[in-house]
Amino acid sequence: MSRKRQPELAPVVWESGIEIKPVYDASDVEASGGAGDIGVPGQFPYTRGIHPHMYRQRPWTMRQYSGFGTAAETHERFLYLIENGQTGLNVAFDLPTQCGLDSDHPMAAGEIGRVGMAVDTLADMEEAFADIDLNRITVSLTINGAAAPIMAMYFAMARKRGFELSELRGTAQNDILKEFIGRGTWIYPVEESVRLVGDTMEFCARNVPRYSAVSVCGYHIRESGATAAEEMAYGLAIGRAYIDHVLARGLAVDDFARGISFNFDIHGNLWEQVAKFRAGRRLWARILKEDYGAENPRSMQLRMIAGGGGGGLTIEEPENNITRGATYAMASALSGTQTMALCSYDEAYTIPSEHAALLSLRTMQILMHETGMCDTVDPLAGSWFVETTTNEMEQKILEIMERLEREGGIIRSIAEGHVQAEVNRHAYELEKRIRSGETKKVGVNCCKSDEDAPRPKVEFHPYRVEEAEKQIARLEKVRAERDADAVASTLERVREAAASGENVMPSIMDAVEAYATGGEVCSTLESVFGHYREPVSF
Amino acid sequence: MSAPGDHPARVLVAKPGLDGHDVGAKVVCRALRDAGFEVIYTGLRQSPKAIATAALQEDVDAIGLSILSGAHLPLCEAVAAELSEAGIADSVRWFVGGNIPEGDHAALRDLGTAGIFPTGSDFEEIAATIRRVLDEVPV
Description:
The structure holds two protein chains of two kinds.
Chain A: E1 12-13, E2 19-20, H1 26-31, H2 54-57, E3 61-62, E4 65-66, H3 71-83, E5 88-91, H4 95-98, H5 122-128, E6 138-141, H6 147-160, E7 170-172, H7 176-181, H8 190-207, E8 211-212, E9 214-217, H9 219-223, H10 228-247, H11 253-256, E10 260-265, H12 270-291, H13 297-300, E11 304-307, H14 320-334, E12 339-340, H15 354-370, H16 384-406, H17 410-415, H18 418-436, H19 465-481, H20 484-500, H21 505-513, H22 518-529
Chain B: E1 10-14, H1 23-34, E2 38-41, H2 48-58, E3 62-67, H3 72-85, E4 93-98, H4 105-111, E5 115-118, H5 123-136
Parallel strand pairs in B: 1-2, 1-3, 3-4, 4-5
């Protein structure tokens, strides 16, 4: 035994509850479950990534969240981003669009085009994507409660432009379950909302098979306060819930599971995020293969967009967020993400300026081209520390998923508000730890350059009443020029399908092609489904 | 805040408009509850009228509006109007928190807000301010 006095080391415990040793060796890997599941990149259980050559073959896609104002303005921003090397588009919609309200709805006042683009009808969708090659640029639609009509408008637009739906790629967020936990753009009650997700999944499986109909978002659950382990556990549980639902319709798992992708958050401890992703990828593969009997490897592969990190950014000394973002992007690359998006440094307090958004894109490009992030696959593999914590994280995630199952499953837990309350409790505790200095935030509770430094000026794009009026005028023009009978009859078919349990997507496609508005489709569905009543616990 | 022995002050925390970011609102709910307030939370997507009605029915002393989308000016104006309409503009003080640019503070004060808590405000400061304001005006 060493005669040296052991130093007193303060304990290190990750947010997810994993205790970290000062030194790891091979015995730790063994004790945590062994190295048997590390495997080979591109092969089950995909711990090391879903492709054999990962970024050597194809670097991550960079897909910044953008969109504001009218479709015409958003179109211009899209062209600017593509010109600057962005390879995908991540479309932001304004709140009325997201909540299924047309621009002339009273609740839309003051919100038209504010946090994203306003889309009332197919005409807006056509304008936003004019001349953009949808085969080359993959488009992600950040839409949930109103996903059915907005996806239908996107598909209708693509078809009108001559793209084959059978070949069309892209992603819709369309994860309504997480909206009940965080983000809040729900419309219908939980069960009916899940049925709508099922309708879009089934429709895509049959008609748009290369399209990712759902992007399950651990992201917003973590942003709402969940730990990294909870983020992954709730995300995978939500993925399972959608699979169970679609299986009950008689589809085979391999017909649709490849249409489920994931959206995860990165902030906080870098190693904890890496363990989260490597463990999550492995668990998802195992769930698909062992629990659902999937045979197609694509069904088992956890494809993801990872990045963001808004919850880690601070309004204090906001330029520090540029540095934080770089570490989040690095964690994302080290975790084998397919697509990356990064919050801009000013996103903690406003909608990103063009300059800040470009800096985020440049951050990801510097990582890609200057730092060797693409040199080799899963560079952290084989580290005793990383493999041990990956094993331990897998256990943590499994424990949370099993607890959820025992408590009646994720859908019930959400409907009753338990997940929401639990997540919010964590948010409050984290906030208290930051206030007390227990959790360190540079520039906030430690390492502050100047106690009296002025806070950054919070500025919004000024709300442009004339642009909002333009959007309403455009909507009125479409309403005046469309075939009113076609709109009425197609909406009636939407109502019938909703009531009978038949898939609503084909009739919604007909309705939006007749230039029915998103609000009309959503209120038609609401007349059958009713409105969600939020359990207002905190 | 009420004098010792009185009922604790009641605060309605509300999310007006369409903004779905409710982490801050719910965290403030917990902080105010821990600071001794009775807290009622409306949930998301409340119309200004629904907020005024809830304030009246719940007999609250204060309202905290949480808005992060940037639509605070039209929403606060509408809430202030509904409070007047409901006849409680003088008895209920209202506060606003979230992404509130400094340039809008004066306009919000003109609309009658009793306090503004921009993103990153300290819990203790929020609780102390509400307490001080309620002490100033007997309700």
